[in-house]
User: Fold this.
Amino acid sequence: MSQAHSPLSGAAILGALKAAGIEYVVSVPDLTTSEGVLRPLATDPQLKLLRVCREEEAIGICAGLLAGGKRAAILIQYTGFLASMNAIRAIAMEYRQPICMLVGLLFADAPEDPRQSANYGVNRMIPLIEAMGMPYRLARNDEDAAGIAPAITRAFDLSEPLTVLITRYPSA
Amino acid sequence: MKRDACFQLLASLLPDDIVVSTYSSAFEWLAIRPHPLNYVAVGAMGLASSHALGLALAMPQRRIVVLDGDGSLLMNLGALVTIAAAAPKNLIHFVSRNGSYEANGGHPIPAQGVLDFAGIARNAGYRRTESFSEFSTFAAKVPTLLSAPGPTFVELYLEPGDTTPAPDYEHIHGVRARREFSKALASS
Assistant:
């Protein structure tokens, strides 16, 4: 099977969160991850799902959870990432907090390299993240998903943010 | 009511509580109750109550008080719905209502004089909501509000106070306040 068609499963992503000690997931729904990640997450006994109205809230809630000693991650759509840029700038980057975000690239049409997407918002994500100096990685398949837990662990160890770009619809 | 008088009363009732404050409310509160358990690192305007929700969920055994502003709350009004849905019993949300973006030049908020913040919080699902414009009434009820199960929302109608602390943005965004908070929390 070529890498372009290798699968990405929601179970691998949820398993990565658990392996990294994540207790809370703060989310605004995203069609990319709706069925493969968010729906099983909502009934997962190990992870606590907190539904919020807007993605910027999630940044603040995660910072509060972290200050209180809990590990949290954020599950949102890339449009919500863009809407939260000021909070990410301040809390994740300037405060150097381990704000870990799983970001779905809605209508992903170039899962191997989102910079090649025909969608302007999608193809700007990596350049924006790189411009901010934020660590990031791609989740294109289960092999990539296996690297999420170590990356989150590293983010907490170093107290630095992490963005994981989910480039295709994960299977349930 | 004057904000400094309200905050002095709260400080007497909250000697060692975790208090999240933001911008003008933070500068006034820090002058009245300097304490390492003051959480001021809210980063972006509007997010104080979101940080407070995270703290409240992480530490359900501790009371978490947030001193919000009306301009700040308007930037994150959906947080009222999120907090009400999460329903932390240990969260008390005060809003200093002076009708202006005080930290941004004192310009009026939209719908000044029309908005009913307590009504919005009540309809979002907060367990308790109150509005106060008389200090004596506030002073009589606030001990009960601080001890009752939340989430509780308290709207304070304010006029300018007797003090105008100088803004210290370096402190509220600086690493020292965050480290002091973390250290104090670990030892409390």
Remarks:
- Chain B touches chain A at residues 20, 39, 41-44, 46-59, 76, 78-79, 81-82, 85-86, 173, 175, 178, 181-182, 185 (CB under 8 Å).
